[in-house]
Predict the structure.
Amino acid sequence: MVKSYWSQFLRSHFRIKRSFSSSVSQVFGPPPRAPQRRVVVTGLGMVTPLGCGVETTWKRLVEGGCGIRALTPEDLKLDVLDRETQLHTFDQLTSKVAAMVPCGDNAGEFNEELWLNSKEHRSVARFIAYALCSTEEALKDANWIPTEKEKERTGVSIGAGIGSISDILNASQMVCEKHLRRLSPFFVPRILINMAAGHVSMKYGFKGPNHAAVTACATGAHSVGDAARMIQFGDADIMIAGGTESSIDALSIAGFCRLRALSTKRNSVPQEASRPFDCGRDGFVIGEGSGVMVLEELEHAQERGAKIYAEIRGYGLSGDAYHITQPHNDGRGAILAMTHALKQSGLHLDQVDYINAHATSTPLGDMIEANAIKSVFSDHATSGALALSSTKGATGHLLGAAGAVEAIFAVLAIYHGIVPLTLNLSHPDPIFRDGFMPLTVSKEMLIRAALSNSFGFGGTNASLLFTSAP
């Protein structure tokens, strides 16, 4: 009797569940198809070793300027340590060159009093201040002054690779000296990567997506590509996107020295230390700065009469799945990222006129990227019609900001019809032959489409493909 009752109960319960599941599947149809919205660039802002501001940076770049100089003990941000320890630390560094943002109150210089020492900004670290400065320029360039309603459709996507290591070092010193009560209440907000995007959104009241990629040297490119997709999928109409970095400090430089990643052979001639694709390259030169774009949905930009620099047509990203610092010898990650960007753009290989290479001046990385480019673009790469350069000879390697800064260079190349040069390329790597060669002089030419590559530690890769304004 009891057994019969429970058998009936279970059969009834099972029928109810099946009926409920069936009704749910009938109620919920497929989600609405994502809108295919086009994304354009309407504003640019930069803080780089070549200067503060887009105009200053671009002018110095195409004229062959270099922002790399010799390090001094004062550059290491070791104020909490005694002078003897500072000098001892400096002496132990095998690399003594860096690409620093020029500071001062003159035109084209980063004003520390305004962005770091003012009452409004004392709670922000330098990498955040660089992002705020470049964002202000980009917004003015785009002439974007949104209403309260429009702020809900405006978002921020600004990432960084490392953040403020100097703050962490100073805090650690306080712990060692048992001075924990001196720790700033702003310590945690100063070191969090997402606080660059956070401060931008709070300053301007932007209530759209608030995003911060942290993907080593591919950070800036990922931040721009992710922002473009947020507009494409309807999450926002405008995105403030880019990357920022300030890691010229004792611990960061020492860490990269221990990895044997930095240039050490040209400490006495710093402007010759970063030499992408050159046979004499021996490592990258650490740099700092920020690059920010205003991205906008095409019709939105056209309706308000915005200046349009270029259109983002492709974004490819991939992983090497191979090694923490070295790319795979066959360049498969780079190949995948470039191939995905091209496929998404709908362009043919021979429609790409310029590539801003990631090429950081490392012996292995530059060669692998060059091979990957040759593999993807094949005959177009050797035809002489594909212009190629790496701008890191002028700026050094800006780590988390590199992808955004170099994407801006790609956009400016399209807008001005000028391909920037590759500095210090006196003896090209043997991979360059049969018409495949980086430019060593800035060249005026019609650029319909430009590809910008960014590859980072952990095998993370991103490629952005821009085309001329629609």
